[in-house]
């Protein structure tokens, strides 16, 4: 008899077997998934008809649970996930059809039975798999998030409670330690963004928060995984709120992310790049892309412009340039060069007509300028000759636009029109700078136009600079260029003085006229006329009498008259600024020594020196800049100006400090140390102090940057070699007060590795300061962490482990460029840094820092080529730490592992080195003979001055025999065991010590003693005073005895 319970079990088994069979077949291939979905729907419908929908849901969830532990690489898991996605999508599609049918037939809004079953299944399935979101198994967490992604991608609506539960789970998974889980969480969050937008419309304006979108914006900026940031960037919605975060990835540290900004994000935006983005931001993005260090990023940016953007405007370059805002763009020139190189066929389509030249726009003139420069640089002479006019006609065109902007009285010109005209003039000047002036008529025509233009006082700085560049090209030689430029400067100054005199004359005339007018209104007209006649005649009478007295020699010169002479009139500040600006651009183009140039000397005396002494800051700054440019051309002027430049840095404002620092760095770069340390010169220590104070003063961040960059350049060129200043320079990199100075940190991040890896001597300097600097930084970091001040940011300083790793990296001899293997293998500068660290390990009180140092010793470069002397000393210090220092187990294990590495290197070094060979640089036969002779000489002195008794003589003989035995054993066994040396006879040590005490060392020269010691360290044969070597050898091995 079949009971209800047996029947239910039978139905359950059938459902389970049917589902298991579908899952088994679906994991083999994707091909039959459509059929498997139909089978699943049929099983669900039958189970529902018989009242076993819960059993179907249970066994479905059960089978899916068995898939969750599969790894990401398992294709079986992906196939099952695809099957589930197709099944859920099919159910949701049926629900949508039922819902639409109900709306069309205007039926009741209540859900049908089918919709209820589907909703219950999806709700239960999501809640079931969410139970695995906190699993310890990363594969389970990954599969759960993967399933959520495909489900959210294939369903329309979900319950509010389920939505909140889902958001809570996703916000926890975005901080998962596995990037693959976080990526799936990002994909799932992106499916909820549209829901967020609808949800926000009903929220209070003050709260105004988004859930998924805000979370994604946080991830795109802060997630450490490049893959997670990439997934977020490509899936987050692109609107006004998120666009800044998306485009910020153009500066991502990962090159793939930077490339995708141009190949995906900007490309998908289409013309919205020009309508939705600020032109300045778009120009900045293109500048970053075209100047990126990675070739794929640069190519992606070039293809975006040359292919996609040009096609958007149907190949119309003028329309493209109009949207790029070429007047204010910094990258437009590079963009056009890339366009011409990628699509050279465009060059043949550019045609210049007379009508275009007479009605130039900013887009046309910019296109012609880029076309002209590109053609010249690529030797496309035919295109230049066929498209551009001769020099005289170009001068006429330039003169027309200069007159239209500056000479004609066009009151109806707006500020935008003036800006455009100045841009057109500038582009024509840039073109004229590279023009061919073999035609003398064309050269003279252009020279006249340029000289007249530079006399205009309303020119912008860019036009002044371009005008002087063209003027130099047109000049016969540099002396002619200087003469014309200074003549223009003098004309501007003289014109200003004449204008002042003319204004004063007009002012006097006005006053006299007003006085005459008032006198006519008086009562005593005759008396007034008489008095006025006397005033008018007095100067003439005085003049005639003065001439007669001077000719006859009757009277001396009147001193009161001399004191009343008016001082020489000076130009007004605005005119001085115009002159200094032109002088600055002129001096930037001068290359020859100007020590004998009278014009430059006169300019310095009459314009630059008074400007440096001027009280107005703008004039003084320009004066210092011009003085610096002159100093680059004359060594003696540089020597005489160092003091005043130092005073500008010490006493001046921030901008004056900045300019003076630039000048000093440039002077040292050009003249080297010839400007300091000599009679009548500033001493180098004062200059070092100036740089030290600037680096220490964090109030002027720009000055810190220019000082750091300048010092790095000077040290890289070996102009500066002081270790103390170099240590201060590197300390400013790690200093917590400078952590917010991003420009300074960026400069150091580039300059310091370049310096250390450029030459062996540079790396040796870093090794010399590394230990002391590390200890000081550790003390600073420890004090910062123990500070009780709540305002102190304890995270702003780099941790000691990162500092130590950077120092080890900078001192790695394998990183030096252009070094052969045999050269860096024997370099011991990093080992000396390591030895100093080991010697100072007892000074480190912080246990965490000490543990960090001991566990990172394996990062040092150790080879047998370093020689036995250094390696044995290193091994001695390691043994001392292991025996005498209280260290934890982790540090001890790491130290012992490193010690084994050193022991292996020592054994290899002893095997490779021949017995009795010297490890020092003195390897010649002559030098070795000198060592032996000096050792013998010292032994003879001892024999003459000391009368040994027979007992002592026998002791000496025994000691020598013992030493010779040890030497013989060393020759037979080149790898002596260090542990056996610890058990040597203490009486032998005491005997050797007594003998050394007997030796009258006052008669021995330091040279003889040093050679006696070095001969022992070089494993040479023993001399007659070999007991010294024996004692020295024993003291090197046994640290405890020496202590």
From TrEMBL:
| GO cellular component assignments | condensed chromosome; condensin complex
Q: Where is this region: Disordered?
A: 500-538, 946-991
* UniProt feature, compositional bias: Basic and acidic residues: 514-523
Its main localization is nucleus
Residue ranges occupied by any Nuclear condensin complex subunit 3 C-terminal domain in the UniProt entry = 579-862
Q: Keywords in UniProt for this one?
A: Cell cycle, Cell division, Chromosome, DNA condensation, Mitosis
Provide one Gene Ontology biological process annotation: mitotic chromosome condensation
InterPro entries listed in its UniProt record: ARM-like, ARM-type_fold, CND3, Cnd3_C
Q: Where in the cell is it found?
A: Chromosome
> Pfam families per the record?
Cnd3
Family affiliation? Belongs to the CND3 (condensin subunit 3) family.
Under PANTHER family, the record lists:
CONDENSIN COMPLEX SUBUNIT 3 (PTHR14418:SF5), CONDENSIN COMPLEX SUBUNIT 3-RELATED (PTHR14418)
- Name of this protein: Similar to Saccharomyces cerevisiae YDR325W YCG1 Subunit of the condensin complex
